[in-house]
Amino acid sequence: MRDRASAVLLDGDKIALIKRTWKGETYFVFPGGGIEEWETPAQAAEREVFEELGLVVKVQDCLYQEQYEGHQFFFGAEILSGQFGSGKGEEFIDPERNRGKYEPVWLPIREMPHKDVRPQLAAVTIQKLILASHSKSHER
Description:
Layout: E1 4-8, E2 10-11, E3 14-22, E4 25-29, E5 32-34, H1 41-53, E6 55-67, E7 71-82, H2 90-93, E8 101-108, E9 117-118, H3 120-139
Parallel strand pairs: 1-7, 4-9
Antiparallel strand pairs: 1-5, 2-3, 3-4, 3-8, 6-7
């Protein structure tokens, strides 16, 4: 069990996810990872997004938290700079790691219910928050 922090990154009607292919399964996860003992959850989310996606982000509000193999934090984040998909984390560049394939993707938000996005409760809750926020902004 390890506490983890993830970022929710949006580009219009798309969300940044990591497509994982491992042990015959294909699923999606939010960019993020384990919190080091010297980090806050927000710092961990920023570091992990840089490692995994090659993006510098500014973490905003915590959108969701849950207990799932440790405490999980999901932060909204704003992209400041970088090139999507240029991450240099060991899971992306070390073929000897043997943990399957990691592929950064922009997934249309409305496709989330049709994909295996993990953890599932976080994915459902975050999608609802995003869609509610989008419908409010269109009302203005």
